[in-house]
Design goal:
Helices cover about 60% and strands about 0% of the residues. By secondary structure, it is an all-alpha fold.
């Protein structure tokens, strides 16, 4: 069934504009629209100094000795 659809699609005559539309839609369908939108709209995450320390970044007990 899929082979018949593909062969039917390859046998149809189309202009370059229609072909590029078809290829574009195929690429979007293959990669997923959400992943493309996520990659395009990705903003850099800036963390404060307290958040970026991670596990073990603070002193045990929370009081610094001077």
């Amino acid at each position: 069934m899929i082979k018949a659809k593909i062969s039917q699609l390859l046998d149809t005559e189309m202009e370059r504009k229609d072909f590029l539309k078809l290829v574009g839609l195929g690429a979007v369908a293959a990669t997923g629209l959400t992943s493309i939108l996520k990659a395009v709209s990705q903003t850099p995450n800036r963390q404060s100094a307290a958040q970026s320390q991670g596990y073990g970044g603070a002193l045990y007990g929370g009081v610094a000795k001077k």
